[in-house]
Fold this protein.
Amino acid sequence: SDIVARIGGDEFVVALTGIQEEADAARVALQLVEGLSQPFAVPGRQGEAAPVYLTPSIGIALFPRDAHQPTELLRLADIAMYHAKGEGGAGWRFYTPAMNERVLRRIELEARLRDAIAQDRLVLYYQPIHALTEGLPLLGFEALLRWPQADGDILPPAAFMPVAEQSAELIEALGRWVCGAVVHQRRRWQAQHPDWPPLTVSIDLSARQFDREGLAERVRDAFATAADGDTPATLPLLGIEFEITESVMVRDPLRAEAELSRLRELGAHIAIDDFGTGYSSLAYLKHLPIDRLKIDRAFVHDLARDADDAAIVSAAVELAHRLGRSVVAEGVEDAQQLAALHTIGCDAVQGFGLARPMPAHQVGAYVQRVARGEHLSLWHAARQAAGAIAVT
Ligand code: C2E
Ligand code: CA
């Protein structure tokens, strides 16, 4: 599908017309280097095969970024190629040093993430979600990805999700890993705490996971594989809620509807994540099989001070209720926000004010604290604050 031309001696030009981003060119270069670096047998004078090794050096120039004219592009690629050669050959280089750096870092991160998934070195943190009624009962947890590093750092999703989302295969592997990890974790909790009430676990799905058809089947398969056959294949999906962003609906509403319906048939619930930040076409709320809305923390942040935000949240809650959906407010940090949300009639809350996301081994202690009512300081503070807040 691409053009390969020999332009003289041992020099070839490859023209890639379908690349979406810088790293695509690097990936092709990497494949070329790998392919050409395999020894191949050339019959020698005595008839025996002697291995021959090639060390290709590749220079990359990008249109329109580096140059607009074909001759200029070739000249820059040639310069980059000599740099690659200067570094010992069997490698590739971009014309621009900054781009080189960036792409190298990206490709390295991708490879490390792939390893981390394969070697089970990612972890899930769990952030509690509480019902906004007397006593703030615990409803469940949202599972949030973390990537512990060798130096003790723990990378948040923002540091690696954008890279994962560039690769269909990587985002798929990541999604599959999360489903498996949740199944294993719930099993452990069930074994250790048979007395716990049923708690939901929410799992974020990336919009990219909807790009390929059959998401529901892939999810079911990931759950069934992790559950290892000793429960009916669909059972582990009970008590699971999938969170999806509005962009999924906008891209391909019919497909989204079909996939979400399938997920629901498997026993899962569906929530719209970061509600209000995307396209917020209210029409899809009516048609799509959705159980909950999660109001984005951008609206919660100034709720007690900003009348516009209060109006938006209150309208969203009202609308959701009329359509038979419930509402969770994200990013609840203080008593004023909690009081305002209670006045508005929001159903559930999640946020640092109640608890930060915590590693799985702290969840047991948290559930005990809740049972003793030790999570209620924010609720009591909200009660006191409530008198001081007027929400329209
Ligand atoms: P999100 O789905 O909106 O998740 C909530 C984020 O808000 C989490 O960030 C959480 O730590 C943070 N948060 C919760 N309460 C508060 C609060 O009171 N104040 C503030 N300032 N922040 C709060 P985190 O864990 O860094 O996750 C960021 C995003 O990464 C998530 O946003 C989600 O879109 C994505 N993500 C996380 N885990 C997964 C996963 O397993 N799969 C996929 N596809 N995406 C994930
Ligand atoms: Ca979420």
Notes: The first strand starts at residue 3 and ends at 8. The pocket of calcium ion (ligand 2) is lined by residues 142, 204, 243, 273 (CB under 6 Å). The radius of gyration is 27 Å. The mean pLDDT is 90.
